[in-house]
Amino acid sequence: MGYEEMWRDLLPIGRVSGGGYRRFSWTAADRECRAWFTEEAGRRGLTVEEDRNGNLFAWWDVPGERRDAVLTGSHLDSVPDGGAFDGPLGVVSSLAAIDVLRERGVTPARPLGIAVFAEEEGARFGVACLGSRLLTGAIDPVRARGLRDADGTTWADAMAADGCDPDAIGPDPDLLAGIGSFVELHVEQGRALDVPVGVASAIWPHGRWRFDFTGQGNHAGTTLLRDRRDPMLPFARTVLAARDAAARHEAVATMGKVHVTPNGVNAIPSLVRAWLDTRAPDDDAVRATVAEIHAAAEKAAGEHGVEVALSEESYTQVVGFHAELRDRLAMTLGGAPVLPTGAGHDAGILSAHVPTAMLFVRNPTGVSHAPEEHAETGDCLTGVEALAAVLEDLLSP
């Protein structure tokens, strides 16, 4: 079964009205995606293993000890109402690349693995790249077990309900020690690529922060304006401040998730909880942007008798991909363009532990994390060929 057939079979899983996807960790859609991957890997005679953090690995092994392995792959989970290509393109392309290598009669001199990392988007439990963070020790397992979704279900409870042992989660240095390089193929998530395939140079530093605006719930009809402690007002000021601060620091800042308590039409909220996503070309710009937004939130909260608290939920410093591996990929592909990205990836987490690089496939719409996300079939097939060429080079003696 080739690329187009695999894509056709995966496409309906987790699709919702409006054309987007809701493939959240430890849900029915996630289980179906994992079953699809396990079946496709089995068709190719690959050995499928699940690590203690919920990550899947399919191995094309060579005789002997698994060391200096080449790893590729991506993720299958999505943001709420996300596009079809973010993550799955890398997984489908990895399986298809193995088909290409076998058609060429390639005999790998070292093991080749395909990874499917868990909770890359952080859509359900709030921390992006959670599977790769757990694998590498970038997050405390105690904190990870206590992460909660919108319904109050913890990561530990969700894992246990799927038959996994949450007490076992944590770093796996033995697995990491066996990986010699990691190459992730991903759809490009902007308009920066004007040819079918490019190579990543770096990932912008980025993080997520939570604002809690605490006021006083009250009646919307009987509470005079002067008597209100409405947390929605400083929240609204903070949204505008985020846009202004980002522009001043040449960053991007987004407040795209908010929970309002009690969320009633005729009730003044008692609590507004909102999340800030900030990214920029360098760490100083990110920190300066967040500091300015925080100051604006405190000022607005004080004017309305509201308390505000800020907590950092995750942060990833600038990631410069392994220069030698990056240049090797670009040379293998005949001088493919090299470009940075503002999007976070599991490759960025693994880069602190193994030589890591990324390939991007052109996105003609420039839209991502939305149903309009797209890549032309011809470009995707070019991406498969490019990944196969890179893997063949890395698998050589």
UniProtKB/TrEMBL annotation:
Keywords: Hydrolase. Gene3D superfamilies: 3.30.70.360, Zn peptidases (3.40.630.10). It comes from the Bacteria. Pfam families: Peptidase_M20. The keyword Hydrolase applies. Belongs to the peptidase M20 family. This is Allantoate amidohydrolase.
